[in-house]
Design brief:
This protein is α/β, with parallel strands linked by helices and about 230 residues long. It is globular and about 50 Å long. It has helices at about 5-10, 50-65, 85, 90-105, 120-125, 145-155, 160-165, 175-180, 195-200, 210-215, 220-230; strands spanning about 15-20, 25-30, 35-40, 45, 70-80, 110-120, 135, 140-145, 185-190. The chain has one domain (about 5-205): 2-enoyl-CoA Hydratase, Chain A, domain 1 (Alpha-Beta Complex). It comes from Zoogloea dura.
């Protein structure tokens, strides 16, 4: 589905969303009123330009439209991979973007993210997973690290990781595994204005992902570890 068709489907009452390179920004009319639309398209690699561009638009939104809900559209191949981006401390720009999403939440902006294409690594973590709730279309590709790359980093044989991925969603790519872990609230069979309106209406600012992961059998110890750390503090 093209971006324009996707926007028409999600916001049948109208939208004014511009694309600058691979950055998406604008407004749209949802069921309960206007929403901000921010995100990426065409499997964007998130470099300083996109990270700071999204962060700046979030700060403008907080100042100019207090409390307006946010819809993040996610289609990213991950953080931009280049020596120049790393030398300029891309991790700092991604962290700044994540902090801006958190600031919007603290200022009363409800947010949902919808993975429309790819969702990979730091490009996904810095804003897609920072939303109050994250959803994915059925054909979305979600992963943090390819198993071959994970094998190189962890020194665990690739064959062993493939074996582990068969029983543990922590090691396995795919939207279904991220749903089992609680990171993705639900997988939508197709883009839907009704599903989006219901997602926005159902947002509260409590983070239930760890509990969802335990209930779904995908992340059994996360909530217990957090409780133990908090109790020790």
């Amino acid at each position: 589905m093209s971006l324009h068709s996707l926007l028409d489907t999600l916001f049948p009452a109208g939208h004014a969303v511009a694309v600058e390179g691979k950055l998406i920004a604008g407004t749209a009319q949802a069921g309960d009123g206007p929403v901000a639309v921010l995100g990426t398209t065409d499997a964007a690699a998130i470099g300083h330009d996109i990270a700071l561009g999204l962060a700046g638009r979030l700060l403008d939104l907080i100042e100019q439209h207090p409390g307006r809900p946010i819809v993040f559209l996610v289609d990213t191949s991950g953080q931009a991979l280049s020596r120049a981006e790393e030398l300029l401390c891309l991790n700092g720009s991604l962290a700044h973007l994540a902090r801006c999403v958190d600031l919007a939440r603290r200022q009363g902006h409800r947010s949902v993210a919808l993975v429309t294409g790819q969702a990979v690594s730091g490009g996904f973590l810095s804003f897609g997973l920072m939303a109050d709730q994250t959803f994915a279309l059925a054909d979305a590709q979600v992963r943090v690290m390819d198993l071959k790359a994970m094998a190189r980093v962890t020194k665990i044989p690739h064959e062993r990781l493939v074996e582990l991925a068969g029983s543990s969603p922590t090691f396995a790519p795919g939207a279904e595994n991220y749903q089992r872990m609680g990171a993705i609230a639900a997988i939508w069979p197709q883009a839907s204005a009704a599903l989006l309106d219901a997602a926005l209406a159902g947002v509260d600012h409590g983070d239930t992902r760890l509990l969802a992961g335990r209930e779904r059998g995908g992340r059994m110890l996360g909530a217990a570890v957090v409780d133990a750390v908090l109790a020790a503090g």
